[in-house]
Design brief:
The protein has 2 helices and 7 strands; from the N terminus they run ααβββββββ. The protein is α+β, with helices and mostly antiparallel strands. The protein has a domain of 97 residues: Immunoglobulin-like, CATH 2.60.40. A hairpin with a 5-residue loop joins strand 1 and strand 2. The relative contact order is 0.17. Fe (ii) ion binds next to loops.
C-alpha cells in the first residue's frame, strides 16, 4: 500500500517536472521568435535593376543553384548557396538569411527557417527531378528583402 502511494506521488511529480520544463522551453522559443521577428525588417520582393549588369549587392542575395549526381533511388543532389560568383551573403546577429524555400515546378518542396548568427544560408537536398523541371529557390534576407532564382534541370 505504501509502495503504491509512493509510485502515485512519483508519477504526479514526474508529470509536474515534465510539464514545467515543456512550458519553460516553449516560453524560451516564443521569446526567441519574438526577438528574431523584431529584426526582420524587409519582406519586399527584390530583383536586379539591370539583369545584364547585376551589382555585387544583388549577386550576394541571389541563390546559386547547382545540380549534382543522382542517388541510387534517382533523386538528384541540389546544392544551394546564397550568393553568386563566390560572393557569400554574411551571417551576423542582425543580418542573416532567415528563410529558404524551394519550389519544383511551382510546388513548394522545402521550407527552411534559419536562426541568426550560427548558420549561413546554404542547403543540400536530393530532389526527384526530370529533364525540363523548373527549380525555384526563394530566400529572405532580414534587411534586404526576398530574392529568388530559377534553374531548369537538364539531363
Ligand atoms: Fe542582406
Amino acid at each position: 500500500m505504501k509502495r503504491r502511494e509512493l509510485f502515485k506521488k512519483m508519477g504526479i511529480a514526474s508529470v509536474s517536472v515534465f510539464m514545467g520544463s515543456t512550458i519553460l522551453s516553449s516560453t524560451k522559443a516564443i521569446a526567441q521568435d519574438t526577438q528574431q521577428n523584431k529584426l526582420i525588417a524587409n519582406r519586399q520582393k527584390m530583383s536586379f535593376a539591370d539583369p545584364k549588369n547585376p551589382t555585387k549587392f544583388e549577386l550576394k542575395h541571389t541563390p546559386d543553384i547547382s545540380f549534382g549526381e543522382k542517388d541510387p533511388n534517382g533523386f538528384t543532389k541540389v546544392s544551394i548557396t546564397i550568393g553568386q560568383t563566390g560572393i557569400i551573403h554574411p551571417t551576423e546577429e542582425n543580418h542573416w538569411i532567415d528563410f529558404l524555400n524551394i519550389y519544383k515546378n511551382d510546388h513548394l518542396v522545402s521550407k527552411m527557417l534559419l536562426e541568426n548568427g550560427p548558420i549561413r544560408g546554404y542547403a543540400d537536398h536530393y530532389i526527384n527531378l526530370k529533364s525540363g523541371d523548373l527549380l525555384k529557390v526563394e530566400i529572405g534576407c532580414n534587411l534586404h528583402g526576398i530574392w529568388e532564382n530559377t534553374e531548369t534541370f537538364r539531363v
